Amino acid sequence: MELFFSALGLAMVLEGILYFAFPNQIRELAKRLPSVPNRVIRTFGITTLTVGLIVIYLGRSFF
After folding, report:
1. In this predicted model, what pLDDT tens digit does every residue of 2-57 receive, in sequence order?
2. I need a labelling partner for 57 at 20 to 30 A (CA). Which of 11, 24, 43, 49 fits?
3. Residue 50 and residue 54: Cα distance in Å, rounded?
4. What is d(CA 56, CA 60) in angstroms, rounded to the nearest whole number?
C-alpha cells in the first residue's frame, strides 16, 4: 500500500508541475478537448497506460 500512495503522490506532483508551469496551454487544451474524437483519446490513454506499466515493470525489475 505504501508503494501505491507513493506512486499516486508522484503522479499528482508531475501533473501539478504542468498546471503550474503552463496554465495558458492547459486552458487551451481544455477548450479543444471536446472536438477530439473518442478514438484518439482512448488511443492516447491506452498508450500512456502501457508505457506506464512498462516503466513500473522495468523499475521494479532492475532497481
Report:
1. 888 888 999 999 999 999 999 999 999 999 999 999 999 999 999 999 998 998 88
2. 43
3. 6
4. 6
Amino acid identity, residue 27? R
Are the CB atoms for 34 and 27 separated by under 8 Å? no
User: At CA 27, angle to CA 25 and CA 32, rounded to 5?
Assistant: 95
Q: Per-residue pLDDT tens for 14-28?
A: 999 999 999 999 999
Q: Which three cell numbers stand for residue 5?
A: 500512495
| 26 in Cβ contact with 19 (< 8 Å) | yes
Query: CB–CB of 26/18 below 8 Å?
Result: yes
CA distance 21 to 43: 26
